[in-house]
Amino acid sequence: MSVGFIGAGQLAFALARGFTAAGVLAAHKITASSPDTDLPTVSRLRKMGVNFTVSNKDTVKSSDVLFLAVKPPIIPFILEEVGPDIEPRHIVVSCAAGVTISSIEKKLSTFCPTPKVIRCMTNTPVIVREGATVYATGTHANVEDGKLLEQLMASVGFCTEVEEDLIDAVTGLSGSGPAYAFTALDALADGGVKMGLPRRLAVRLGAQALLGAAKMLLESEQHPGQLKDNVCSPGGATIHALHFLESGGFRSLLINAVEASCIRTRELQHLADQEEISPAAIKKTLLDKVKLESPSLSVASVNKVSLFTNKSKKN
Amino acid sequence: GKVPASNILASAPSNKNLDAWRELGCRTTHCNLEVVHRSTLVFLATKPHILPGVLEEIRPAVGSHHIVVSLVAGVTIQTLQRLLPPWTKVLRIMPNLPCVVQAGAMVFSRGNNAGDEEATLLKSLLSSCGLCEEVPESYIDIHTGLSGSGVAYVYLFAEALAEGAVKMGMPGALASRIAAQTLLGAAKMLLETGEHPAKLRGDVCTPGGTTIYALHQLEKGALRATVMDAVEAATNRACDMAKD
């Protein structure tokens, strides 16, 4: 089986790294493409032994499982470009936040009557094989296709199938989640440094504490509230600290964060559904390449598309 | 039904409160010494500033057969033992208001001369009023903050719940009854299932449902921290008052 990545950025690199480290796929069975060869991930992919090309079409031709690992606004362009090359054997896996299965199927159906589409939401820790992935299968993707993807993604962490309508919530929670954790770890380390620890040690200990706690929770039947209680001796240090967290509305901040990420994802999806994309938001070189490679896209139609003004980060 | 009313003797300087006792079938008197002479188990239930005077008064009549149980807020076992004969069996108890409806929460501690027998007796007697547990004396102030005053926090919460319902269109009286029943039911589930409150909370929260939306509001208001602050404040105040 060979896997292709349209896009050679953080996500493609993380997945390629994870798959090869897990041993489910040899690097030479992976192809990645991007018009932008300056990305730092491009050279890293090359070093791994992944086949790199600037031609998306080449990636499609040499893959069975095709990951769309580009930013959400780019998806429509990609689908227009590679649509003609999609064959019945292809399983198209979109990792783009907020891009619905139906929008992908709609775009592809002009080229291919029954495109196999799976939508997936993963996260960056796939790179260390501790990813959190969910997927939903499209109209023409059958059970085996889903299972195939699940096997791949399970090699780099946790993977489970969900109903598509839950994917935005997953984005808010585990998609963006690592960012919340990095922020927390940065702050915890600051706390350690304030109280006298060297930075490196503080970071190491903070990360290990979160890792350990997460592991305990995953391996325990107990409620996190109970596990928390188990750490809090009466009148002790921990309960004093927790009181501070509660006073600061720690819990509500986290709830707010997950909610905001989920809602933003839905907003972006909404905007995408309206097919409004502004040229200004896409790097000029990228736009030129797209124009070059998709003669069917007239300049007029490209100018009609107006986008979200900020090139949003994945997730 | 632990003790027949006729075996209970209460004393007070005036008749103001004694009528209520008589109505229950208890005997009454204006003489504190009489209570001590005619009882084995003597409860001290005066206001804190009255107590020293009362102890001085009854001291001569207190014997080694007596069990003296103080309900007086802020008066330590050390103080009690200092003001009573050295052989006195002293216990200190902190109840809370709902003892009145036999759903109280009480903690007690023993003095130097009070042994297992006295503790067991007290516990069995008071379990008729609710939960009764022996604790180290240092927990008594905490109990005040948690449950003595805690009852008021619950009343406040119940009032607020009802007000929310009234705002949304429900008549006040009905809202109040439902609020109270909700608290009662939730507390009952906690006590009977023995499950962690966080788990029970999660059980009520359907994904994307009404409860989780409401809980988010509570978290935004830092309710947890505020409640912790309240318990802390009451406990600290109890400690301070005891020092006076």
TrEMBL record, chain A:
Keywords: Acetylation, Amino-acid biosynthesis, Mitochondrion, NADP, Oxidoreductase, Phosphoprotein, Proline biosynthesis, Signal. It is an enzyme of class 1 (oxidoreductase). Residues 3-98 form the Pyrroline-5-carboxylate reductase catalytic N-terminal domain. Its EC number is 1.5.1.2. GO terms for biological process: cellular response to oxidative stress; L-proline biosynthetic process. Pfam families: F420_oxidored, P5CR_dimer. Pathway: Amino-acid biosynthesis; L-proline biosynthesis; L-proline from L-glutamate 5-semialdehyde: step 1/1. Residues 164-268 form the Pyrroline-5-carboxylate reductase dimerisation domain. Residues 1-26 form the signal peptide. It catalyses: L-proline + NADP(+) = (S)-1-pyrroline-5-carboxylate + NADPH + 2 H(+); L-proline + NAD(+) = (S)-1-pyrroline-5-carboxylate + NADH + 2 H(+). Its main location: mitochondrion. It is found in: Mitochondrion. GO terms for molecular function: pyrroline-5-carboxylate reductase activity. Belongs to the pyrroline-5-carboxylate reductase family. This is Pyrroline-5-carboxylate reductase. It comes from Leucopsar rothschildi.
From TrEMBL, chain B:
It is found in: Cytoplasm. Residues 6-74 form the Pyrroline-5-carboxylate reductase catalytic N-terminal domain. Pathway: Amino-acid biosynthesis; L-proline biosynthesis; L-proline from L-glutamate 5-semialdehyde: step 1/1. InterPro entries: 6-PGluconate_DH-like_C_sf, NAD(P)-bd_dom_sf, P5C_Rdtase_cat_N, P5CR-like_CS, P5CR_dimer, Pyrroline-COOH_reductase. Its EC number is 1.5.1.2. NADP(+) binds at A45, T46, K47, P48. Residues 137-239 form the Pyrroline-5-carboxylate reductase dimerisation domain. GO terms for cellular component: cytoplasm. Keywords: Amino-acid biosynthesis, Cytoplasm, NADP, Oxidoreductase, Proline biosynthesis. NADPH binds at N32. GO terms for molecular function: pyrroline-5-carboxylate reductase activity. Oxidoreductase that catalyzes the last step in proline biosynthesis, which corresponds to the reduction of pyrroline-5-carboxylate (P5C) to L-proline using NAD(P)H. Proline is synthesized from either glutamate or ornithine; both are converted to P5C, and then to proline via pyrroline-5-carboxylate reductases (PYCRs). PYCR3 is exclusively linked to the biosynthesis of proline from ornithine. Belongs to the pyrroline-5-carboxylate reductase family. Homodecamer; composed of 5 homodimers. This is Pyrroline-5-carboxylate reductase. It comes from Leucopsar rothschildi (Bali myna). The lineage of its organism: Eukaryota, Metazoa, Chordata, Craniata, Vertebrata. The gene is Pycr3.
